[in-house]
Design a protein that fits this description.
- It contains five helices and seven strands; from the N terminus they run βαααβββαβαββ.
- It is of the alpha+beta class.
- About 35% of the residues lie in helices and about 35% in strands.
Length: about 170
């Protein structure tokens, strides 16, 4: 377990940090799960500066940068959805070299604690059906598979996911 892990609420100035972590993590972790072409497409569309800025400033997402000492090692993004009394975790990424260290569980714990403060009744997220490592980690934390969902994201690509839920 690492003692020097901290969490910093991200703002507009952190967008380049988030994009840099996204590029590195996606290019290291996702080959073999999705194609390089889909990785490039998703990084270019879902992680564009304007998209992240709009999520932070206009759509109520809380982005949080995860630090190990002074080094940025991951991030997460989530928002409270009133209609479901739920917190949707839209992004939870950690450098692959740190997978299996307990830091991912700390990240989930951070979101869970914040969700409870917000009065949420559940957490939910979407994870690629072929991302076995992440699915196992979420299940260890208590998430359960709720349904399989395929979403067309354009340019001939789809997200083939499980929606996973954790009751609070």
């Amino acid at each position: 377990m690492y003692n020097d892990i901290s969490f910093r609420i991200a703002g507009e100035a952190d967008i380049p940090v988030i994009q840099g972590l996204s590029s590195r993590i996606w290019r290291e972790h996702y080959p073999g799960i999705i194609t390089h072409a889909q990785i490039d497409y998703m990084l270019g569309t879902m992680y564009a500066s304007g998209v992240i800025r709009d999520e932070i400033l206009g759509k109520g997402y809380r982005y949080v940068v995860v630090m190990m000492g002074r080094e940025e090692i991951g991030y997460l993004a989530y928002r409270f959805e009133d209609i479901d009394q739920a917190v949707k975790i839209s992004k939870l990424y950690l450098l692959p070299s740190l997978h299996g260290t307990g830091i991912g569980s700390m990240m989930l714990g951070y979101v869970k604690d914040d969700a409870l403060r917000m009065g949420a009744r559940k957490l939910f997220l979407f994870v690629n059906r072929n991302n076995a490592k992440a699915i196992r980690a979420y299940e260890r934390f208590g998430f359960e598979k709720a349904e399989a969902i395929v979403t067309d994201i354009g340019s001939g690509f789809v997200m083939d996911d499980f929606r996973m839920v954790l009751a609070l």
